[in-house]
TrEMBL record, chain A:
Keyword Chloroplast: no
Composition bias, Low complexity: 26-36
Protein name stated in the entry: Translation initiation factor eIF2B subunit alpha
Stated family: Belongs to the eIF-2B alpha/beta/delta subunits family.
Chain spans, region Disordered: 13-44
Organism of origin: Ilex paraguariensis
Lineage of source species: Eukaryota, Viridiplantae, Streptophyta, Embryophyta, Tracheophyta
Bias kind Basic and acidic residues: ranges: 13-25
UniProt xrefs under Pfam families: IF-2B
Automatic annotation (TrEMBL), chain B:
Listed InterPro entries: IF-2B-related (IPR000649), IF_2B-like_C (IPR042529), NagB/RpiA_transferase-like (IPR037171)
PANTHER family (alphabetical): TRANSLATION INITIATION FACTOR EIF-2B (PTHR10233), TRANSLATION INITIATION FACTOR EIF-2B SUBUNIT DELTA (PTHR10233:SF14)
Protein name, UniProt field: Translation initiation factor eIF2B subunit delta
Source lineage: Eukaryota, Viridiplantae, Streptophyta, Embryophyta, Tracheophyta
Protein family according to the UniProt entry: Belongs to the eIF-2B alpha/beta/delta subunits family.
Keywords, alphabetical: Cytoplasm, Initiation factor, Protein biosynthesis
Length: 395, 330
């Protein structure tokens, strides 16, 4: 039996419990109120990547086993769960509530993580009592730092925060005589960012149409909203193409993508993740999304992307990446282990003996030499241009 | 004029000749300091304009320096910086004001582009050193030395393989400094680099210059080390200040290289029995080639660490372009 999303259901149960226990606590709790400030700013469960949990919740198809496991995990963690929160009016309370605000936004499946971060930062501006640009900047810096440290595994969260901070520091108060107009200008910008995010997907979908030709076979990996938009636009413009979907273990995001594509009447074939090399000869191009685009021009994406890119390279198939420009991050991993580990639970369906180690990393790094082109809202870029854009943005 | 030329020769030129100053940064700083001394003593001759006359003087010193030893690219960039500063001096300034401006400009250049840049490079580079890593370096780079020492200071556990080569054996100096600080080191010659590479996690190399196509211009032997590292899938990190970037493109090591003393490779000190080449100069059919630099293709470079952050070798032209802009308004 399949559920739409495990953590969604867990959240709901939690909310119900919360409502029974303490009707005034409006937000999902993530930390116990008794812990010190340092603790409250920490992710309650650093062992598990919040970013990938959310993705799994939004896009994954989850089995009952997984649900049971997740439930058990929640039960085991004494800090987590149904404990209520009281928002303290001190500094730590404020930073905590940024995270809550962010988590609120993050739950919307259509909203990108970076946009959620920027909305949360906009909320900080709105509720700020600062009277000068400098104060506001310091306050924002604190908020964005606490957001970033809350989930260090999420690249788009970090990139979103950095991007917005960059905008704030560039829009100096000098340009606007009056502090209030500067503030409202910033808020306006934050609001606009959400639209830009939607628009970016449309732009990327339009740009990629030239590359999808009639009769082609496209391999996709994982569930990416941008890739779905690309394929949707292609099918709407009456292109004839076939899609091969990998299963996308362990959260089975590929299954969800194949469901969506079937709704669009696109011929879809599902593959298990290990069948990529077997099917590669019938593939014309590979489309993947990205969790983050790094400075080298490589991408960090769901586990399995690297091996698909390797297979594609050895068979001379183009690998296209669809990613919005706010996923560009100032990171430069040298190898697979040179990243903050993002872990998540994996369900093997059978009990695993405790002596057996399990690789639970959720993502891998694909170096730029295995990528052909990146479709972004800045245009169709080769991997080496990414760094140029980043330099122009941040220097 | 004579005193100024003497300054230059005392400060920098003769010491180059003697090989006292080596290392791109040290040479560049010494040259700039010599320029500062000569600017301090400068007075505009009657009926001449400071801008023109001083530029001519600087040109004169530079040609003297070139006679001592060909300029490195970093020095060329620094000279160009100084000349643009002189040309951009407002005509309304008095001589003493103009001199003060130039002196402070040179100070700023040394501080911002060399000393602070090194600090930034060190800060970036230590993030790429993990506990238990084995680092490899070739020759003696001041930036790499600072990185190792800083990483050691902040308590990272790592080992350094210092690879060296004849005839300069510069690695020994670096080795000496690292060992003195208590860093575990391995010393080997470049002949053994393919053996040692399999246990290495990161290769840190210095550079004399980085060219626009990402080619790294550095001490001869660097290309070999980088190529072996690439073959073994070991990331190669080049540590280079952005003022050493150059907009020129070079495809091989031979053009615009510098020739060292051929005797340095023909003789092995302390081994009389193998000095078969003692009379090489009299032979017509023998030429010795002692190159100082070589060019490492960008394919072998994983990352360049500069004061602008960590960038791929393909982004060097962007930095050169942005840096140019800055050059004009500093």
């Amino acid at each position: 039996m399949w559920y739409r999303s495990a953590s969604f259901i867990l959240d709901k149960q939690q909310e119900e419990n919360d409502a029974e226990g303490k009707p005034e606590s409006r937000l999902l709790s993530t930390a116990s109120p008794s812990s010190s400030m340092a603790d409250t700013l920490q992710n309650p469960n650093p062992q598990i990547s919040a970013y990938y949990q959310t993705r799994a919740a939004h896009h994954g198809v989850v089995t009952t086993d997984w649900l049971a496991q997740a439930q058990a995990a929640v039960g085991r963690d004494p800090d987590d769960g149904v404990s209520e929160i009281s928002i303290i009016s001190t500094d730590s309370g404020k930073q905590l509530s940024v995270i809550d605000e962010f988590n609120n936004w993050r739950k919307q499946p259509d909203l990108a993580e970076a946009v959620a971060a920027i909305r949360a930062l906009a909320w900080v501006i709105r509720s700020s009592e600062a009277t000068t640009m400098m104060e506001l900047e310091i306050e924002l810096k604190k908020a964005s730092d606490s957001l970033k440290s809350w989930d260090t595994t999420s690249i788009s969260l970090t990139a979103g925060c950095d991007l917005f901070m960059r905008y704030v520091t560039r829009t100096s108060a000098l340009e606007y005589e009056d502090f209030n107009s500067a503030k409202s200008r910033l808020l306006e910008r934050a609001e606009k960012f959400g639209e830009i995010s939607y628009k970016a997907r449309k732009i990327i979908a339009m740009l990629s149409q030239d590359f999808i030709f009639d009769g082609c076979t496209i391999l996709v990996h994982g569930f990416s909203r941008v890739v779905l938009e690309v394929l949707k636009t292609a099918s709407q413009s009456r292109k004839l193409f076939r899609v091969l979907c990998t299963e996308g273990r362990p959260d089975r995001t590929g299954l969800r993508l194949s469901n969506e594509l079937a709704k669009l009447d696109v011929p879809v074939k599902l593959l298990i993740d290990s069948a990529v090399a077997y099917s590669m000869d019938e593939v014309d191009m590979i489309f993947v999304g990205a969790d983050g685009v790094v400075e080298s021009g490589g991408i960090i994406n769901m586990m399995g992307t690297y091996q698909i890119a390797l297979v594609a390279k050895s068979m001379n198939k183009p690998v296209y990446v669809a990613a919005e420009s706010y996923k560009f991050a100032r990171l430069y991993p040298l190898d697979q282990k040179d990243m903050v580990p993002a872990l998540r639970p994996i369900d093997f369906g059978v009990p695993i003996p405790s002596k057996v180690e399990v690789e639970t990393s959720a993502r891998d790094y694909t170096p730029p030499q295995y990528l052909t082109l990146l479709f972004t809202d800045l245009g169709v870029l080769t991997p080496s241009v990414v760094s140029d854009e980043l330099i122009q943005l941040y220097l | 004029m004579l005193t100024m030329a003497l300054y230059i020769s005392n400060q920098a030129g003769l010491r180059y000749l003697a090989g006292d100053i080596s290392g791109g940064n040290a040479r560049c700083i010494a040259m700039l300091e010599a320029f500062q001394e000569s600017i301090k003593d400068y007075s505009t001759p009657p009926e001449k304009a400071l801008i023109r006359d001083l530029t001519a003087k600087i040109n004169c010193y530079v040609s003297f320096l070139i006679e001592c030893r060909p300029l490195s690219i970093s020095m060329g960039n620094a000279i160009r910086f100084l000349k643009t500063r002189i040309v951009k001096l407002p005509l309304t300034l008095s001589e003493s004001e103009a001199k003060a401006t130039l002196l402070s400009d040179i100070d700023r250049f040394i501080n911002e582009k060399i000393i602070l840049a090194d600090k930034v490079i060190v800060r970036h580079a230590v993030t790429k050193i993990r506990d238990g890593d084995v680092l490899l370096t070739y020759g003696s780079s001041s930036a790499v030395e600072m990185i190792c020492l800083h990483a050691h200071d902040i308590g990272k556990q790592f080992r350094v393989v210092v690879v060296d080569s004849r005839p300069k054996l510069e690695g020994r100096l670096l080795l000496h400094r690292l060992v003195r600080k208590g860093i575990t080191c391995t010393y080997t010659h470049i002949n053994a680099v393919s053996y040692i590479m399999h246990e290495v996690n990161r290769v840190f190399l210095g550079a004399s210059s980085v060219l626009s196509n990402g080619t790294v211009y550095s001490r001869v032997g660097t290309a070999c080390v980088a190529m072996v590292a690439h073959q073994f899938h070991v990331p190669v990190l080049i540590c280079c200040e952005a003022y050493k970037f150059y907009e020129r493109v070079q495809l091989d090591s031979i053009c615009s290289n510098e020739l060292g003393d051929p005797d340095a490779i023909s003789k092995v000190p302390g081994r009389k029995e193998i000095n078969y080449l003692d009379d090489w100069a009299n032979r017509e059919n023998l030429q010795l080639l002692n190159l100082i630099y070589d060019a490492t293709p960008s394919d072998y470079v994983s990352m360049i660490i500069t004061d602008y952050g960590m960038i791929p070798p393909t982004s060097v032209p962007v930095i050169v372009r942005e840096y140019r802009k800055e050059h004009l308004w500093i």
